[in-house]
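Sequence, please.
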């Protein structure tokens, strides 16, 4: 059946030894295959990445770094991690790389630990204007341990407000400026961030968690030449395993490595490091550049189609893989929370998201965030984007009509069936 062809013979073993878990894993595979995955921070990894993740490296302790481990038996782990490091340095043109962070949040916290003292002042983009929790939210360790000041986007154009950032920088003299976004649809040119950081003598950190795949594929400017440190997740547009990575100038190498281990993590997840290495190799292939550019083309096409359906796009559109959709002009009563629930019923997976200066709470919101990395991996192109926009609009227009929502769900399943992920047949 599906299990043998997709997961391989080991999955049959799991089916026998733990049918409960095996059954849920198959349900999740089916969910990923039959629903539209529009969460901007998700993707489908290659089967090669999944194979590395499911490897025996998970058994090994490897505290330390290649050639400098605390435990014996790391000859193979050293080779894997050294390959991951050299590949990612080549991919982004970086002087130094640490591939051990367990996640994007862990990568960011390690950078702060390595380059700041508790209480130091930092500038970051506010959460409700598209920043990330780890950029100084009061409920996150970043905001608890460091003195973050938030910049935002301009009210008309909804673009990064560099004038406000410069004013804040001159007033507060931050030790570091954090650039980077979670739900901001526009290109982040590194030059204006660098100019302000230099003017006030601040370190510049770029968090390209969302953009890493676009940068790697040449579909977005690369901040590595400008920034002291660049962090990212490996599982979003970069299409690797769930995990984090830190790139830095050579001068920060020692501080960063010490902050990751022993500063904030224990034993590295070397099976994940192996899977990162596989993903970096895939991203070095010229075909990945075609993929990255197609993600952006698809996002532009989807944004245009959603505008035609009566939605408002925050900032008027997108330059990246994601868009933030303001639902209010389409239907003033339809909150992001309701939209997420209804679309889930219709087999369309996305997340509610605040729009800039949203009058509704982050649990309710007036918008949704939509991304094209996953559907692009499936092979969808500009031709499918108006179809997706109309399916979204149809489900939301008939959100009180269960039969109509179910009808959308079958259309979604039919569309997904034309673009199979993890095909059953090898
Ligand atoms: N930084 C940014 C900009 C992000 O968007 C995210 C994830 O959404 C993170 C950091 C955190 O990554 P993780 O969820 O792997 O901790």
């Amino acid at each position: 059946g599906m299990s043998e062809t997709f997961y391989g013979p080991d999955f049959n073993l799991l089916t026998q030894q733990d049918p409960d878990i095996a059954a849920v894993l198959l349900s999740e595979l089916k969910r990923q295959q039959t629903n539209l995955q529009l969460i901007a921070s998700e993707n489908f990894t290659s089967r090669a990445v999944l194979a590395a993740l499911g490897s025996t490296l998970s058994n090994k302790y490897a505290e330390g770094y290649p050639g400098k481990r605390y435990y014996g038996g790391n000859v193979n782990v050293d080779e894997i991690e050294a390959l991951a490091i050299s590949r990612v340095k080549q991919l982004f043109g970086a002087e130094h790389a640490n591939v051990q962070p367990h996640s994007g949040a862990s990568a960011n916290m390690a950078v702060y630990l390595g380059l700041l003292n508790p209480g130091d002042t930092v500038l970051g983009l506010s959460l409700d204007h598209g920043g990330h929790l780890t950029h100084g939210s009061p409920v996150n360790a970043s905001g608890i341990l460091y003195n973050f000041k938030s910049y935002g986007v301009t009210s008309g154009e909804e673009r990064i407000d560099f004038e406000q950032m410069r004013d804040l920088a001159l007033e507060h003299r931050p030790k570091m400026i954090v650039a980077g976004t979670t739900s901001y649809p526009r290109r982040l040119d590194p030059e204006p961030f660098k100019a302000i950081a230099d003017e006030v003598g601040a370190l510049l950190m770029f968090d390209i968690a969302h953009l890493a795949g676009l940068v790697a594929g040449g579909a977005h400017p690369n901040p590595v030449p400008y920034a002291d440190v660049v962090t990212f997740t490996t599982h979003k547009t970069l299409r690797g395993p769930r995990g984090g990575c830190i790139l830095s100038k050579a001068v920060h190498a020692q501080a960063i490595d010490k902050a990751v281990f022993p500063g904030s993590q224990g034993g590295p997840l070397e099976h994940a490091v192996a899977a990162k290495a596989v993903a970096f190799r895939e991203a070095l292939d010229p075909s990945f550049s075609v993929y990255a550019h197609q993600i952006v083309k698809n996002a532009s096409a989807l944004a245009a189609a959603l505008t035609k359906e009566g939605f408002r796009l925050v900032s008027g559109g997108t330059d990246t893989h994601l868009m933030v959709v303001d639902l209010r002009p389409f239907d003033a009563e339809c909150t992001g929370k309701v939209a997420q629930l209804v679309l889930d019923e219709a087999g369309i997976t996305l997340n509610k998201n605040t729009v800039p200066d949203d009058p509704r709470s982050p649990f309710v919101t007036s918008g949704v965030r939509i991304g094209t990395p996953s559907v692009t991996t499936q092979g969808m192109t500009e031709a499918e984007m108006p179809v997706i926009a109309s399916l979204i609009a149809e489900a939301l227009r008939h959100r009180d009509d269960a039969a109509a929502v179910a009808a959308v769900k079958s259309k979604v399943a039919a569309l997904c069936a034309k673009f199979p992920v993890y095909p059953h047949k090898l």
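Residues 32 and 224 are 33 Å apart (CA to CA).
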